[in-house]
Known about the structure:
The chain has helices at residues 2-15, 24-32, 43-49, 69-78, 95-106, 119-125; strands at 20-22, 37-39, 56-57, 86-90, 112-116. By secondary structure, it is of the alpha/beta class.
Amino acid sequence: MKTLIALLFLFPLSLFAEVRDLDIASFEKLKNSGVPVIDIRTTAEWKDTGIIEGSHTIMFFRPDGTYDVQAFLSELKKLGISKETTFVLVCRSASRTRMLGNFLSEKMGYKHVFHLTGGVLNWKAHSKPLSIYRP
């Protein structure tokens, strides 16, 4: 019985141990309600396609595939994003945001990490607007 009770308490925690997917409509609702959107693509990608209006550009993976977790976390902190803050990650196709989001949730303890399913490619496919990237 004690094991069952322990499992019941742990089960809800496991539901939130990974990044959560957002379709376009759900993403827009969160974005429009003021939830921070973090675009983790490279500078070249931002220049090439533009960015979703209001996104914060914080590159995570450099063009050579390397990254600096502490520098990224420092930039999140500058935006006021804590482990309790709800925020959305965006990249080109959602593969990098899934990887990063799972890391932030599972290893770093961030509790409310979302990402845009299909990334900027999905956003564009739905004819949604992109703004010119200005450093």
